[in-house]
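Help wanted!
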Amino acid sequence: METAVVLLSGGLDSATCLAMARAEGFRCHTIAFDYGQRTRSELQAAERVSAALGAESHRVIELGMGGIGGSALTDHAIDVPENGGEGIPVTYVPARNTVFLSLALGLAEVVGADAIFIGVNAVDYSGYPDCRPEFIDAFQHLAGLATKAGVEGHPVRISTPLMALSKAEIIRRGTELGLDYSLTVSCYQADAEGRACGRCDSCRLRREGFEQALIKDPTIYQS
Amino acid sequence: METAVVLLSGGLDSATCLAMARAEGFRCHTIAFDYGQRTRSELQAAERVSAALGAESHRVIELGMGGIGGSALTDHAIDVPENGGEGIPVTYVPARNTVFLSLALGLAEVVGADAIFIGVNAVDYSGYPDCRPEFIDAFQHLAGLATKAGVEGHPVRISTPLMALSKAEIIRRGTELGLDYSLTVSCYQADAEGRACGRCDSCRLRREGFEQALIKDPTIYQS
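Answered by r_m:
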């Protein structure tokens, strides 16, 4: 049986990614990051999802990205946008996926993982540069050079099973695998109980996904 | 005037790297990591060195790498070796330079830096895989794809001015630039006052460097 490290944010995509890794037969170690994000209920969602899907272990790694700043998700002086817009949005956290994959790579070495699963997606991808296939390919190459396992000829594989799926396809896949999406929180500004605002870009993409998948949206919205 | 992010550990190499960046005329933002390392006095040394060399800002980023484990430097159950040895040593922190460079990349985006300086060295490099030129080249490629600046055609440069220098050459260069090495702490198990053990691999490499450079070693050792 192969072992995987799975990055969990508490949102819909990474939960589906974990469900897919489990369905492929991987023993999974999940990792989430406490990086000063606006929405604390994300971290509780990640822990619930990890337990519900039978992961071997769950870790929350503290990461002082607030000391770096530059994003609406970690800097409370910047407002979260509610109307889409062009280009790379202010919710982009500088180098976030590079940082997250790097820490997952460290954990992969420690637990002897064969793969790292990350729920990035190039279809409904919000315009972040570090969600594209060429970014993942570059990280895969780096991983082979950066680590003891890589040097010894067993580089970890970076697995991105959601890369080419639409949000609706992701939701259909997860639903087929029995994933309960009411466990997840996608909203950039969810309240302490994990209830979604219904207005931010992340809420909009999620709601449209359920509509297009013709699956009832279990998201709990703020009244 | 160009701007740089400089990774500072508190040790001899990164201090020299900062001195070289300053001598090249860069405005420097320094960044250090509180990652559960054994030696807390490293972080105080980094702050001293940043101030002494006139950096624009200094940040200490918290990083819960202890939650990942797997190294003598972050896991107190593993002893620090005192006799060299073959292969990748237990002081190797899994994926450390990948993690550090990723966070420096995030800061580089926020401050609009043209370069990231990192004091890695392939000569006296302790056998860590993430100190080799091919690792740095792979990270440079990744940086061009991972960030807003990269996407917009201005990828940050990864500068490694110590890469081809011996420890003695590094010490000579820093001394020429007026760097006071008594500010720095290299020891893996320095005490609270920053006094070195004189026995670990890092102490051994440092002492041999001063001997070969024919420069008096200002290191304060534990009696």
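OP: Thanks! One thing I noticed: The CA atoms of residues 211 and 217 of chain A lie 8 Å apart.
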